[in-house]
Structure formats: C-alpha cells, structure tokens
C-alpha cells in the first residue's frame, strides 16, 4: 500500500458516478444509454461526459446506431473494476467483520 491506498485502487473508478456506471455495465453485454441515464439519475450530457472519461481510459466501449447508443465494459474495464473492488476490500480490512463483544471498560475511549 502506498500513500494509504492499496495496490489496484483506481481514482477514475472511485468517483461515485463512474463506479455506479461500471457496476451497472459489469453484469451485461451491452447496456442502453437510456437505462444508464435513468439508473444513475444523470442528464444526457453528464452521462455522456462520464462515459467519455471511461472510454478514454479504455474501460468502456460506446456504440452508436442512429440515435441509439449502448455501452459495454471492455476487458480492461472489467480488470480495472475487479482490481479496484479488491483494493477497497483491502482498504476496509476487517471493518465489516463481526465486532467483538463490548465490555463496560471498552466503552471509554482511550
């Protein structure tokens, strides 16, 4: 871990909107632009901007057929998402494991 961030941590994917987009794309082959817009609550222009950022990184492929657009996660995008998810698990460590029983003496911060 360098600088407090584990290996595989991805600044581009960590941004909540982009993380939502790639998470929506991960289980699908191609996803309609309109579905992504509705699922994320973004405007057309805001979604286009985020998809362009992901496309420039090589994580997303956008296909346009007339007025219809679909997006898909690339192999590189899937790898980056998997690495980022692993980095988040490392970063969070045991935060979600069952807590040990608390004794009265433990209630006081030391």
Automatic annotation (TrEMBL):
CDD domains: HTH_ARSR. The keyword rRNA-binding does not apply. GO terms for molecular function: DNA binding; DNA-binding transcription factor activity. Gene3D superfamilies: Winged helix-like DNA-binding domain superfamily/Winged helix DNA-binding domain. Residues 7-87 form the HTH arsR-type domain. This is DNA-binding transcriptional ArsR family regulator. SMART domains: HTH_ARSR (SM00418). Keywords: DNA-binding. SUPFAM superfamilies: Winged helix' DNA-binding domain.
């Amino acid at each position: 871990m360098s600088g407090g961030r584990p290996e595989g941590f991805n600044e581009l994917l960590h941004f909540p909107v982009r993380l939502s987009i790639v998470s929506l794309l991960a289980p699908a082959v191609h996803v309609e632009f309109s579905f992504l817009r509705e699922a994320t609550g973004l405007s057309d222009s805001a979604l286009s901007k985020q998809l362009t950022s992901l496309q420039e990184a090589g994580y997303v492929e956008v296909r346009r057929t007339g007025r219809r657009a679909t997006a898909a996660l690339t192999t590189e995008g899937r790898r980056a998402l998997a690495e980022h998810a692993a980095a988040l698990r490392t970063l969070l460590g045991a935060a979600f494991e069952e807590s040990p029983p608390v004794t009265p003496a433990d209630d006081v911060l030391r």
